[in-house]
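Sequence dictates fold. Below is an illustrative record:

_____
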Amino acid sequence: MKQFTLKTYSSSTANEQNCFYILNKGLNSGQPHPKPFCNSFTFIADNEVERDIFYWITFAAWQGRLFYPYHKGSVIPFITIMDTTEVIKNASKNCIANPERITNLVQTFGSLNNLEMKYENLTKLTKLAKRAAALNFIKA
């Protein structure tokens, strides 16, 4: 299994090159993101390829709600760094042994993200059209 480092994010430390960030507080705990959150872990990989592989594995684990059973706290749920490491290691066991699964995962999420962006743009345009129709009605 490929090795990685998971640290608590600190804005005072320099950003690593081959890293992404994982939200550790709230209902979206476990969500990966390329930019840091104030409440996040820094995932540091050995190289860019491994970073991308683990990013999508973490994204799949978050989408699959694999972090949810590890939520702690009653008011603001959070996950610990040990639990996050365990979830990522368990999720990556099958994927790393079979590289074509990772390729399929990246292609699937890439196409779904593009589709999601198209629908978001369509929603924005629909809202603008509604606003324009309402203003046209009021002014006429």
Q: What stands out?
A: Residues 99-140 form one domain. The mean pLDDT is 88. The first helix runs from residue 48 to 63.
